[in-house]
Amino acid sequence: MKTTDKVLFFDTTLRDGEQCPGASMNLRQKLEVARQLEKLGIDVIEAGFPCISDGDFDAVYQIAETVKTCKIAGLARCVENDIRRCAEAVAPAGDRARIHTFLATSPLHREFKLKKSKAEIIAMAVEGVKLAASLVKDVEFSAEDASRTELDYLAEVVEAVIDAGATTVNIPDTVGFTTPDEYYNIIDYLKKNVPNVDKAILSVHCHNDIGLACANSLAAIRAGARQVEGTINGIGERAGNAAIEEIAMALATRPEVLGFEKGVKPYNLITQEIVKTSRVVARMSGLQVQRSKAIVGENAFAHSSGIHQHGILAKRETYEVIDPAEVGWGETELPLTKHSGRAAVKARLEKLGYTLSNEEVVAVFERFKKIGDRKKFVYDDDLASLVNDSLDSDAGKWKLVNLQFFAGNQGQPTATVTMDKDGRIYTDCAIGNGPVNACFKAIDRISKSKGTLTDYSVRATSIGQDSLGEASVMVKFSSCPDEKPVQGKGSATDVIEASARAYLNAVNRHIAISDQK
Ligand code: KIV
Ligand code: ZN
User: For the chain, how big is the Rg over CA atoms in Å?
Assistant: First the structure.
């Protein structure tokens, strides 16, 4: 029988997504993503893992204060300290606060990671859930590595945590191991064999290690799961998480084969916000979307072959299963120019999905004016790149004041850099094997850091030879050998300046991370 009930969307871009190497976002950037997730109509935002660091705690707390309609979840291991700290972090969300606690249940994890018996795991899960339920009304329990757990034991765990007060029970495919039929059977088995299953919502959480995250999520929904977890653009650990936009559009396009009534959109999402959300996440996380990515990639609705173009012109549905407008691909607006005033820039920023304070608009506008003097048109992607630079600078201590370099195919490339820290001006110069290398060395000398570049790229943010160059670096700092490489981004009409800004951004992020420890 087809149903009209809804699937809840649980977004973990700010937690599992942020665990992706190179994706770290500062507090300001996380708030920007959370606001856009709210506009998208996400039901539950997992805002972070409060016990992991003070930075994560602050982010969850401030998101819980800022977002007004979504439930706000924080992640916690199934131990008292984590759960209590999580409760404090989500408290500003009031009735919308959720504690999401997890404990592994599979034989591999029981034996090698936790060194606990089946009975001990159940006792620990029950104790954790009871504690969480005494602190908030809404408790989610995740049986980590559920898809590799014995089915009868998984059913016992699910029954016990529901009795203990879990309102949602998540069955994660933690290592992206399962297949659609197998996952369908797991959810179907739980639905049929857990006596109190109707007292909680069954949730699914898929990783994409063998490219099946979206297919597995849909199979689980077909079997009766009513919460689905994922991230925007599918970012996440290793090969990523299930992409929310893909699951949403599969449900919108084929409801009748997924167990829902035809013509009914079985969720609360506002699909027209999808592309904007994808852009905001890409910008804020620094992770570019692959061009051919379903729904949100640049090429997702581009038809290059003549036969396809002809078909589309005759009738769109010949080669398109989704109307691009339905996910927010719209007419591109006219680019801004140096004559555009602050109000026009502010209005465009709002259209692009950014909610900036007056000071932030002023900072973006100042850079916009400088860029406008150097290039004829400032495109939306140029503007978004400037926003990212401005939002990132609040984490920083060092600011770039001036940069001069000498380079050519002969002679020794040199760079002279002037930077500001707390109102004091510092200048130094360095030589390198090229102007970029010389700039990085001069920045190292002034900031007394020693970075090793592990990745570097430059791309144009828009069309035309006068486009902004956006540089992206990954830097490992010798003062913290255990720290993962830190990402930095910067943009300017000159790619050497963009590179210097990116490197300085990484230095500032590294300082902010070290300060939090
Ligand atoms: O992949 C996983 O199992 C998780 C849990 C914490 C839900 O991310
Ligand atoms: Zn996960």
Answer: 25
Going from the C-alpha of 162 to that of each of 21, 128, 194, 202, 465, the distances in angstroms are: 34, 12, 10, 10, 60
Top mutation candidate among 101, 106, 169, 170 for ligand 1, by most atoms within 8 Å of CB? 170
Return the structure tokens found at 384. Answer: 């978004």
Provide the b/e sequence for 226-249 (b: ≥16 CB within 10 Å).
bbbbbbbbbbbbeebbbbbbbbbb
Q: How far apart are CA 6 and CA 264, in angstroms?
A: 10
- Of the candidates 32, 34, 31, the one whose C-alpha atom is nearest the C-alpha of residue 11 is 34
**Which residue, among 187, 190, 142, 196, has the nearest Cα to 168 in the 3D structure?**
142
Q: What is the pLDDT of residue 415?
A: 96
Distance CA 25, CA 14 (A): 8
CA–CA separation, 258 and 232 (whole Å): 21
> In 370-450, which ranges are E strands?
398-406, 414-421, 424-431
Q: Please name the residue whose Cα sits nearest to atom 1 of ligand 1.
A: 174
**What CA–CA distance (Å, rounded) separates 296 from 248?**
12
Q: Is 5 helix (H, G, I), strand (E, B) or coil?
A: coil
Residues of the chain with pLDDT under 50: 394
Q: What pLDDT, on the 0 to 100 scale, is given for residue 351?
A: 84
**Contact by Cβ (8 Å): 310, 304:** no
| Contact between 429 and 442 (Cβ < 8 Å) | yes
User: Is residue 215 within 8 Å of 254, Cβ to Cβ?
Assistant: no
Rounded Cα gap, residues 397 and 272, in angstroms: 38
Residues in the chain: 517
pTM of the predicted model, to two decimals?
0.88
Fill in the DSSP letter of residue 243.
B
Give the pLDDT confidence score for residue 1 in this predicted structure: 60
Give every CB contact of residue 465 below 8 A, 6+ residues apart in sequence: none
Beta bridge partners of 33: none
CB 484 within 8 A of CB 18: no
pLDDT computed for residue 233 by the predictor: 97
Q: Is the CB of 174 under 6 A from ligand 1?
A: yes
Cβ 105 under 6 angstroms from ligand 1: no
